[in-house]
Automatic annotation (TrEMBL):
InterPro entries: RsmH, SAM-dep_MeTrfase_MraW_recog, SAM-dependent_MTases_sf. Keywords: Methyltransferase, S-adenosyl-L-methionine, Transferase. This is Methyltransferase-like protein 15 homolog. It comes from the Eukaryota. GO terms for biological process: rRNA base methylation. One of its GO terms (molecular function) is rRNA (cytosine-N4-)-methyltransferase activity. It comes from Euphydryas editha (Edith's checkerspot). Pfam families: Methyltransf_5 (PF01795). The keyword Transferase applies. Belongs to the methyltransferase superfamily. RsmH family. Coiled coil: none annotated.
Length: 324
């Protein structure tokens, strides 16, 4: 969704932008080509960081590559002298990058056999747990919760039970294909299709759930949204691309101001009884949001883009301006 990002971001000369999810650098390059602006790139993956360093050589004195998670951003920006309320635009492209999916050894892809790692940081933090370790140590109820909440998997209980049985009776699950086989054994007669009506692996949602859990993605996403509020200038622009409803819900509630203690509210609406509250200040507080949505509804990729890049089929773009 390159063109849509540029349309909402409106890069201008001499402004400063942050690409919070550099990946392979497609969006960053487009922003740099659109205006004579400066760009800070952030990614938690060391492979992406090396690509960002290559990009900074192509565009001298315009790109500042940073390596870290969203939660590490404040200290990284402090080190390079960037203060709050000084950024003109922030871009998030959540989820897993194609670069990570295409490398079977990282363990992200259902279709490629490899060790079940799934750490986006690629071992940068030696204490970070891998997907294999989650499957080898979590109990049945914990696995059920991971698959049900993060994967929205309808067979979560059955899959969790089968993994525990395999662990005790056969062996730990170490590779992606072993996990796919276990999930397939739980739904032998099931034939799933993706949004393009193409055959989809039964294990897709299980892989999604493990990846989100291992990388603490939803908490990081929530923190990233909070940071954008503090680092954007007044009238600064925020553009987000999400790939499933769990991500999109957090973004949507932040933009709508449905926030409790800097966290997206788990319920869709903040409850306020007009019978009990007559105080205008309390009512205003409930309706308060620092964002004004630019996109009336969520934007989706064009049919042409989905045809050329099927992975974009689930993309959901939202954009907002910081108004206070």
């Amino acid at each position: 969704m390159l063109n849509e990002v540029i349309k909402h971001m409106k890069p201008s000369d001499n402004e400063l932008y942050i690409d919070m999810t550099f990946g392979a650098g497609g969006h960053s390059r487009k922003i740099l080509d659109s205006a004579d602006c400066k760009l800070i790139t952030l990614d938690r993956d060391p492979v992406a960081y090396e690509k960002a360093k290559e990009l900074s050589k192509e565009y001298p004195n315009r790109v500042t590559p940073l390596l870290g998670r969203f939660s590490e951003l404040p200290s990284l920006l402090k080190n390079i002298g960037i203060k709050q309320s000084s950024i003109d635009g922030i871009l998030f492209d959540f989820g897993c990058s194609s670069m990570q999916l295409d490398n079977g050894e990282r363990g992200f892809a259902v279709s490629k056999n490899g060790y079940l790692d799934m750490r986006m940081d690629a071992g940068r933090d030696p204490n970070q747990i891998t997907a294999r370790e989650v499957l080898a140590t979590a109990n049945e109820h914990e696995l059920y919760k991971i698959f049900k909440i993060y994967g929205e998997e309808k067979k979560a209980a059955k899959v969790a039970q089968t993994i525990i049985q395999a662990r005790y009776m056969i062996k730990n699950i170490d590779t992606t294909h072993e996990l796919v086989d276990v999930v397939d054994s739980c739904c032998p007669d099931e034939f799933r299709l993706d949004k393009l009506q193409r055959p989809q692996s039964n294990a897709t949602k299980i892989f999604q759930a493990l990846r989100i859990f291992v990388n603490n993605e939803l908490n990081e996403l929530n923190y990233g949204m909070v940071l954008s509020k503090y680092y954007l200038k007044l009238n600064g622009r925020l553009v987000t691309i999400c790939f499933h409803s769990l991500e999109d819900t957090i973004v949507k509630r932040h933009i709508a101001g449905n926030i409790v203690n800097e966290t997206a509210n788990p319920v869709p609406l903040r409850y306020l009884s007009p019978m009990l509250v007559q105080d205008q200040e309390t009512i205003n507080q409930f309706l308060d949001s620092p964002w004004k949505a630019i996109t009336k509804h969520v934007e989706v990729p064009s049919d042409k883009e989905v045809e050329t890049n099927p992975r974009s089929r689930s993309a959901r773009l939202r954009a907002a301006i910081k108004i206070k």
